[in-house]
Design goal:
The structure holds 2 protein chains of 2 kinds. Chain A is an alpha+beta fold. Chain A contains 2 helices and 4 strands. Chain A starts with a strand and ends in a 6-residue tail after the last strand. Chain B has a domain of 67 residues: 434 Repressor (Amino-terminal Domain) (Orthogonal Bundle). Classes of the chains: A alpha+beta, B mainly alpha. Strand 1 of chain A pairs antiparallel with strand 4 of chain B, so a sheet runs across the interface.
């Protein structure tokens, strides 16, 4: 089933908190592109309905994480943020 | 109360104390201080309240202040426009730089991106906070792709 993509308010708010380097924007586009293609195969986070995709901490891209969930036939993009590979 | 207004609005926006401190360019301790009802300068108050997007009103004793986030709203609109342009460009080109233009993909393996996140507690905590926002309906939709 083809899913629509919706970007929610918190996503735009979090988008503004990203640094403004071109590498970050490139990583974001790669991450979102892969997210919308793989969304249904991404496992849930704990006991929530949220799912997470990250740029690989061992890769070359800026470390970004996107939170989303699937509802009403749409991928709901909820938040994007930088993350640290060594975060608790 | 002022401290409750700030904390509730910050949490509703999905922002951490660190996020707000970074955006407002103030020490994180100042954000904590404000949320705990301690004294902060008017400048610090102005900086912090101006970066919390859904903080529209502050209760200060018997006085209710309506905050003005015009600068932030303008920035949000600009970011929204920029992001839409980028998405349309990607859609028009059919692929990202370095990727095949016409190869349909069905969740292929991609070493640049990992499905499922890092598994950290930070990640799980944020997921729970976001789910709570959704449950409370504080995630109004802005646009469709």
């Amino acid at each position: 089933m083809e899913l629509r993509v919706e970007y929610l308010d918190p996503f735009y708010d979090s988008f503004l908190l990203l640094d403004d380097r071109p590498e970050t924007f490139h990583a974001l586009v790669v991450l979102l592109d892969d997210t919308v293609h793989a969304a249904e195969t991404v496992p849930l986070v704990g006991d929530t309905d949220m799912r997470v995709m990250v740029t690989d901490p061992e890769g070359d891209l800026v470390l970004l994480r996107v939170y989303f969930f699937i509802e009403d036939g749409a991928i709901q993009i909820m938040k994007v943020q930088h993350y640290r590979a060594d975060e608790p | 109360m002022l401290e409750n207004d700030v904390k509730l609005a910050r949490e509703a926006a999905g922002l951490s104390v660190t996020d707000v401190a970074k955006l407002a360019n103030v020490p994180r301790q100042q954000v904590y201080a404000l949320e705990q009802g301690a004294n902060v300068t008017l400048d610090t108050l102005r900086r912090i309240t101006s970066v919390i997007p859904n903080l529209e009103r502050l209760t200060l004793g018997k006085v209710e202040l309506v905050t003005a986030n015009e600068d932030l709203e303008e920035a949000r609109r600009a970011a929204l426009d920029l992001f839409d342009v980028a998405r349309r460009l990607v859609a028009a080109l059919g692929a990202l730089p370095g990727k095949p233009a016409s190869t349909p993909r069905q969740a292929p393996p991609n070493r640049a991106v990992r499905r499922g996140g890092t598994g950290s507690e930070t990640e799980r905590r944020t997921a729970r906070q976001l789910e709570e926002m959704v449950r409370k309906g504080k995630h109004k939709r802005r646009t469709d792709a």
